[in-house]
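User: I'm preparing a small set of examples for a lab meeting where we compare how different chains pack in three dimensions. I only have the primary sequence for this one, and I'd like the structure in token form so I can line it up with the others. Please keep the answer compact; I'll paste it straight into my notes.
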Amino acid sequence: MKATFFITYVMIDGWAGIAAEVLRLTPLIMFHLKNTFLVKTELDRQAAMDPGCLEFATSEPRLQLYFMLGHVYAPVTPLILPFIIVFFAFAYMVFRHQIINVYNQQYESAAAFWPDVHRRVLLGLMISQFLLMGLLSTRDTNKITLVLIAQPILTFWFYRYCKGRFESAFVKFPLEDAMVKDTLERAIEPTLNLRIYLQDAYIHPVFKKSELEKPVPVDDEEENPLIQTTRASRMNSLPESDNEA
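Assistant: Understood. Below is the structure token output for the 245-residue chain.
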């Protein structure tokens, strides 16, 4: 009964949400309202047309929810899997187009979300395996159930292996890049006393007794590199064309 409810939920919320993402009716209506009552100059028009950026705080947990539903209810009602697959196929095509051609990219996370996504995907897989074991135990298949005990154990071992093998790449700065930055820093600021600088480097300027001379940022240290998208390339080319005109 619950699986039937979630099949309907995936069709109504998931498929309709993807269609609404393509149409973007709310931003379209807001643009026309701003264009009618607020736009006075060309800069105001550009601001009204700004689509914003993709909200990872809402979109990424939503995708994980549908993935979890597919994992959990697949042993009980495999009929839910085609609906989940269709949702992710449409979501891939739509969000790929929106990220490249519509949304502005405000930051580059360098796959910082992936460890959390990986942990939750494997957690959903383990829940699915336990549900399958419970379902088979009610069908007088105890021998098969005993064999399936190895599945969650191997899945947990795989999670621990991936955590120990790859998590450091997401939470620690690469040693080679750190050596390059240290070398450049010594060349540009040979007299910089790093210990004195770090004593109040993370203190708010209001609470500092004296302002130390800050080193020049090396290799754009304070700015994360952004991947060029189609929309960003168009926006960057507009000022150049205006200057040529």
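A couple of notes for your slides: The radius of gyration is 26 Å. The chain has a mean pLDDT of 80.

User: Perfect, thanks.
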